[in-house]
């Protein structure tokens, strides 16, 4: 029997801005409500960023995370996965502060520095809900998201060794898979390795079936049987490439961080739970089973929700 499919839901992220959708969770109450809804719909992992509740701007302030982390733990059994990516306009220390304080079961870890271009989104709107939005997007024309080898080693040591946190290794291109393989060989990463193929970000590999097959073949060659993978496809490619990922033996990530819509011509997704329910329905109709949180913990060798600091 095939393993159940782990559904990750990425609730809010740092790419989209409040002008783009009124359904993007911003406040602590909205984060908790959508986290509970996504878990009830079938997500076993919640990938979390925070925002300033007054302006909706991406935030790495510990207090903003503390507004929702304990409540999510109290109200769900989901695995909490805190971003160490933050945004490309935060320092490494800023990006790591919430995770170091919370000591979660999982964190995301971008496996390299890259151009991370979200500036094309600025051309889609003539007016903005908040003054910061347009400038934040335009700044990515000349900002590199920085995760050097030294940065990656620091994160692996401080969060992995220091906090017992496991990682979702976010790979935006094939070179990032080479870095995962290097650190696996060096013993700084131990199996099971959980790789997230990130498709469709300007500066990384495109969101296409060919790109997904290439990333899977590369990971198979480099990581063999030491890894599991998940598929994150940005925008309108979310559902079809997520489904393809499951057919290739992987897991799936959905959520408003990656895609604000309900599919081509279907308008905005009303919330994160809607996307989780939709991919769950697709996969179950194809004969897949969906992992419960306790199954995801076993598959990813996590320390357990009772060993976090929130």
Automatic annotation (TrEMBL):
Pfam families linked to this entry: BKACE
Please list the GO terms describing molecular function.
3-keto-5-aminohexanoate cleavage activity; metal ion binding
Keyword terms, alphabetized? Metal-binding, Transferase, Zinc
Required cofactor(s): Zn(2+)
This chain belongs to which protein, by name?
3-keto-5-aminohexanoate cleavage protein
The question of whether Zinc is a record keyword is answered with: yes
Q: InterPro entries from the xrefs?
A: Aldolase_TIM, BKACE
Tell me what organism the protein belongs to: Nitratireductor mangrovi
Q: What is the lineage of its organism?
A: Bacteria, Pseudomonadati, Pseudomonadota, Alphaproteobacteria, Hyphomicrobiales
């Amino acid at each position: 029997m095939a393993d159940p499919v782990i559904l990750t839901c990425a609730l809010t992220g740092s790419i989209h801005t409040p002008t783009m959708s009124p359904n993007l969770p911003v406040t602590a109450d909205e984060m908790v409500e959508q986290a509970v809804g996504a878990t009830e719909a079938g997500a076993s992992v919640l990938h979390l960023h925070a925002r300033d509740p007054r302006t909706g701007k991406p935030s790495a302030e510990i207090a903003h995370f503390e507004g929702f982390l304990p409540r999510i733990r109290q109200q769900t059994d989901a695995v909490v996965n805190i971003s160490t990516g933050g945004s490309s306009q935060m320092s490494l220390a800023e990006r790591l502060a919430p995770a170091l304080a919370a000591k979660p079961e999982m964190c995301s870890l971008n496996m390299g520095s890259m151009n991370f271009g979200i500036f094309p989104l600025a051309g889609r709107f003539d007016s903005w809900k908040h003054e910061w939005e347009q400038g934040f997007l335009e700044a990515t024309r000349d900002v590199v998201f920085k995760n050097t080898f030294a940065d990656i080693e620091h994160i692996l040591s401080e969060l992995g060794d220091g906090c017992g946190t496991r990682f979702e290794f976010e790979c935006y291109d094939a070179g990032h898979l080479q870095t995962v393989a290097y650190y696996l060989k060096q013993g700084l990463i131990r199996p099971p390795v959980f790789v997230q193929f990130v498709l469709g970000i300007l500066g990384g590999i495109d969101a296409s079936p060919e790109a997904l097959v290439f990333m899977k073949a590369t990971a198979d060659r480099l990581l063999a049987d030491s890894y599991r993978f998940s598929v994150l496809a940005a925008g309108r490619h979310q559902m079809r490439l997520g489904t393809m990922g499951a057919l290739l033996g992987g897991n799936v990530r959905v959520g408003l961080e990656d895609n604000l819509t309900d599919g081509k011509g279907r308008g905005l997704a009303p919330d994160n739970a809607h996307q989780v329910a939709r991919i769950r329905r697709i996969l179950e109709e194809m004969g897949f089973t969906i992992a419960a949180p306790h199954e995801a913990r076993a598959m990813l060798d996590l320390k357990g929700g009772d060993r976090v600091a929130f």
